[in-house]
Amino acid sequence: MALTIFSIMILLLLLGFPMMIPLIVGAFVGFYMMMGGFGQMETMVQQFMAGIRPASLIAVPMFIFAADIMTRGQSADRLIDMVMKFVGHVKGGLAVSTAAACTMFGAVSGSTQATVVAVGGPLRPRMLKAGYNDSFVLALIVNSSDIAFLIPPSIGMIIYGVVSNTSISELFIAGIGPGLLILVLFSIYSVVYAYRNDVPTEERAGWGARFHAVQRALWPLGFPVIIIGGIYGGIFSPTEAAAACVLYALILEVLVFRSMSLGDVYQTAKSTGLITAVVFILVAAGAAFSWIISFAQIPQAILGGIGIDAMGPIGVLFVISIAFFVGCMFVDPIVVILVLVPIFAPVVDSVGLDPVLVGTVITLQVAIGSATPPFGCDIFTAIAVFKRPYIEVIKGTPPFILILLGVSVALIFFPQIALFLRDLAFAK
User: Fold this and answer.
1) Cβ(373)–Cβ(394) under 8 Å?
2) How many degrees, rounded to 5, is the angle at CA 180 between CA 174 and CA 183?
3) What are the pLDDT digits (tens) for 77-100?
4) More exposed terminus of the chain, fewer Cβ within 10 Å: N or C?
5) pLDDT tier at 375 (50, 70, 90 boundaries)?
6) Contact present, 393 and 116 (Cβ < 8 Å)
7) pLDDT class of 101 with cuts at 50, 70, 90
8) Which of 140-144, 200-204, 374-378 has the highest mean pLDDT?
9) C-alpha to C-alpha distances, 383 to 263, 326, 389, nearest whole angstrom
10) Is the pTM of this model over 0.90?
11) CB-based contacts of 410: which residues, under 8 Å, 6+ apart?
12) What's the pLDDT at 190?
């Protein structure tokens, strides 16, 4: 049964169908094979609806909408300009600024694709003009944008929290430590690269210009305060923080900065609606597919075959990391989370792993896989946005992937990288 389902899904993918079609077809084929027909179709419909019923999922379109508003308005540019004024003059400072800007925008959007567009668009030409190689620039933008998977609000963490019934607030806080560690390591590599390639520095900005840039960025800096401060302080749930971010973004761009008209807001909302529809179809189909494979006990057969039941917590984390890393090299991250999390859930419970740690490890692997050849989704986002060939986009990625894999190993052996802030915030 498992071989038939996966063969059909792979065939549909090779034929060029979008990922939602193989998921839906795979679920219905599995249902037909288990039930001997479609006589109890209402059960299947219930599984589709159950996938999109959790109230926490409301946060997903909210954060997407807020990110779209900021990308179309001035918030992204103001954040980028502030970072540039402080570190642009340092050797490799422009690259460090790009990584920091991606992290900051990830902290207000939760979307890697939005970060690639918002940060990569204005900074790539400046980096090329400064003497950086385009393959390095593209790899830096793609991989730094993936920090948005870890820095709250992370859409990947929201999906994981819903699927695994784990606190999204705790996941958000736990992602900060690994995200900042990756930023530091990317910055160090960027400085080393600049020295090795003798990249010239930019003119140092005066303190007056820096102060002015901070003033201009004060309003956009309110986003992480709302998200992290509101959740940490117990003022907002993640869903309420998402709604507050939308309202804040609208106030900034429409009333304060006057960078958007009501017509622009309508077009942005329509774009968000289309993206949300795709995401929710994937979530519904993934929930139904996960129910089918769980009902058929396919996960038990697969995991039993590799002997995972005999492994300790560290071994289980390594297996999970490899599975998600490889999966996201080929398939959309949301789909991988929806399909694989239920498979590993019983093993995670049996070895006593902290679900927040597991969620952080999974989110990191999703981030790495999304920027890793052959089919990492952010690679194709960069190809579309920057109109560069595939080989050029992936050429500079190996050093960044090695850094990310190093952080993955460190997170497995030193879980306090993620759990320290979580324990501090929630007094575990």
Assistant:
1) yes
2) 145
3) 788 788 878 877 788 888 888 888
4) C
5) low
6) no
7) confident
8) 140-144
9) 29, 21, 6
10) no
11) 181, 417
12) 93
Answer yes or no: are the C-beta atoms of 144 and 103 closer than 8 Å. Answer: yes
With tokens 């004024």, the residue in question is: 85
The identity of residue 127, as a single letter, is M
Q: Assess contact for 325 and 369: CB atoms under 8 A.
A: yes
* Amino acid at site 340: L
pLDDT in tens, 240-292: 888 898 999 999 999 999 999 989 999 989 988 887 887 788 778 877 877 77
Q: Longest Cα pair distance anywhere in the chain, in angstroms?
A: 74
Q: For 30-36, what is the mean pLDDT?
A: 83
Quick one: CA torsion of 108, 423, 363, 220, rounded to 10 degrees? Answer: 10
